[in-house]
UniProtKB/TrEMBL annotation:
NCBIfam families (UniProt xref): transpos_IS630
Positions of the UniProt region annotated as Disordered: 345-365
Domain Tc1-like transposase DDE: 183-325
Descriptive protein name: Transposase
One Pfam family named in its UniProt record: DDE_3
SUPFAM superfamilies: Homeodomain-like, Ribonuclease H-like
Length: 365
């Protein structure tokens, strides 16, 4: 049988990459979370087999997610439900309503108003003959289904890193072609690890959901986790400490250094200040450890981010640990289970579109 062609999500803008990262950290719906993890890993240039291995889903599922994201963008991450009677307002009119809602009242000669309320928008639609009558609730549903929501006007960031392209290509080169004289390690912090009930999903008798306490007290403080993903084996290594200063980071690097004596370590990390502390830099230089920093606002390119999303989903969501020892044990159990099934990540998807970037894609209007 011929090998199936590789597929990837389209090139991501800066805001899209960071938005995917936020969704993998905060999404409550497991369907949306799985799709976001798959899209982010594909955007990082990871192949379909790597994604299926981490998320324990089928090859066809991952390909469908990638194709849907390329066609519909972030709207493809949300689960769609069907049913109900046919709409009284045609799809063409609904699209027209959504288009009008995204304009400003002043564009229609309505002075003194910079934005629509549902009431003024409904009155405007009726006055122009778009609809004969429409309630505010019906209008709200049309806008929601059309992907138009009430939002705060915000700003967007382009990378301020003048060496963005060079740094990105350096990281991708390490992903694509790990140096023969050492190994590539992705490092980042995960946390804070609070003792609190965490919402999640699980199989349970219908209409009788498992329940967690709603009130809690943080009497035992928080912990911080620092972890490393070894691309040569695909295994995770971690430490849990009370703080995440440069001292803890340097101690973890010493542990990694001792684990692979005689090999040069290429440590990929973001621009968090403890990672760049003078003591860290000098000790790394003296011990054959090269610190490879991701470009500014490019932390989503770190392959360990998707591992953290899976850890949160499988080990923490739906739990209510009462002590840090109990929570740490759950994390350790998951990591051991994951490492027993780990596969090397050295066979990266070199034909991913991200490999051809010469600059970061501009914001899509």
């Amino acid at each position: 049988m011929a090998r199936r062609p590789e597929v990837f999500v389209r090139p991501l803008t800066m805001e899209e990459g960071r938005k995917l990262q936020r969704i993998t950290r905060n999404a409550k719906d497991p369907v949306k979370l799985r799709r976001a993890i798959g899209a982010m890993m594909s955007g990082q240039g990871q192949s379909v087999p790597d994604i299926t291995s981490l998320m324990q889903v089928s090859d066809d599922y991952v390909r469908d997610v990638i194709h849907a994201f390329n066609e519909r963008g972030f709207d493809a991450l949300d689960p769609k439900w069907s049913g109900g009677r046919p709409p009284a307002i045609s799809e063409q009119v609904r699209e027209h309503i959504c288009l009008i809602a995204t304009t400003a009242p002043t564009e229609w000669g309505i002075e003194g108003m910079s934005t629509w309320s549902l009431r003024t928008l409904a009155e405007h639609l009726i006055a122009r003959g778009v609809v004969a009558a429409i309630s505010r609730d019906h209008l709200r549903r049309i806008l929601r289904k059309g992907g138009v929501s009430w939002q705060t006007t915000t700003t967007w960031k382009a990378s301020t890193d003048p060496h963005f392209s060079a740094k990105m290509q350096r990281v991708l080169e390490l992903y694509d072609h790990p140096p023969a004289d050492g190994r590539v390690i992705c490092v980042d912090e995960f946390g804070p690890l609070n003792l609190m009930p965490r919402k999640g999903k699980r199989w349970w008798p219908a209409r009788s959901p498992a329940r967690l306490r709603a009130t809690y007290h943080r009497y035992h403080g928080v912990m911080q986790m620092i972890a490393a993903l070894d691309l040569a084996t695909g295994k995770l290594y971690y430490r849990i400490r009370t703080r995440k200063r440069w001292r803890e980071y340097l101690s973890f690097l010493k542990t990694l250094r001792a684990r692979w004596p005689g090999e040069k370590l290429y440590v990929i990390a973001d621009n968090y200040s403890p990672h760049k502390h003078p003591q860290v830099r000098s000790r790394a230089a003296a011990n054959d450890v090269e610190l490879v920093f991701l470009p500014t606002y490019g932390s989503w390119l770190n392959w360990i981010e998707s591992e953290f999303a899976a850890l949160r989903y499988y080990a923490l969501n739906g739990t209510d640990h009462r002590s840090h020892d109990e929570q740490n044990a759950a994390i350790g159990t998951y990591v051991r289970w994951r490492n027993a099934r780990a596969q090397p990540k050295t066979n990266s998807a070199a034909s991913s579109p991200i490999r051809s970037w010469t600059s970061y894609p501009s914001k899509v209007a």
